[in-house]
Amino acid sequence: LSFCLIFVSLIFSSFCVIDCRLPMKVGPCRAAFPRFFYNPTNQSCSSFVYGGCESNRNNFLTLEECESSCSGVTEHCEAELQVGPCRAAFRRWYYDREAGSCQSFTYGGCKGNKNNYVDEESCMVTCSVNDPSKCSVSGHCLVSPDPGPCRAAFPMFYYNPDSASCQSFIYGGCRGNENRYVCVFSCVLVLSCVGQQLTIIFNRLIGRLIFLMNRIKTNTFLISATLFRKRRFGLSK
Description:
- This protein is of the alpha+beta class.
- It has 3 domains: 2-71, Irregular (Factor Xa Inhibitor), CATH 4.10.410.10; 74-130, Factor Xa Inhibitor; 133-191, Factor Xa Inhibitor (Irregular), CATH 4.10.410.
- 40% of the residues lie in helices and 18% in strands.
- Strand 3 and strand 4 (101-107) form a beta hairpin.
- Helix 1 (2-21) runs antiparallel to helix 6 (193-236), helix 4 runs antiparallel to helix 6 and helix 5 packs across helix 6 (193-236).
- It is flat and about 80 Å long.
């Protein structure tokens, strides 16, 4: 259970950081809604006028919501590299905002800052802002949505490669193709760069969990064997 909670926490914290580092997007529509976005350049929330459609997740109704959602973004991804004063030699990763990528460095083992990750994948999923149009998309995601020959009316979502976004369509209930998702979150998570990176992180965490479980089993066996020998030795005396 604790592992699941840690993983869920990692997912949501990663999404929050990514949301706050996306560029401000007015959208093509012509409404005029007052909104707020986080500006990583001056490390504060600023107001803008939202057109009403095709926004991204760096779009908040109030200044308070923006500030509470984006607190800590600077520390995680914008802070300068800090090796720390200690003299250990741990390989770590930090986000280089000028290069726009994660770089390795040798961490001394103490102090430092929050722009410090145990592996490249954790750094990338937290700090990189990706353009979905540049992500590799599998073949079935490039086909047009197929409602099928049946006449039911199920609201579904499909990936539109032209706009690099997930959009709704009506599914008839039979046949169709694999470019069909029950909810927009499923579509985005499967097809976006973020979804691909979270899959990498999840697989890595699963691998570590299995390693730790095997290590615990090995240690338990060794302890049991030692206790057995001690008891047997005690009985023989």
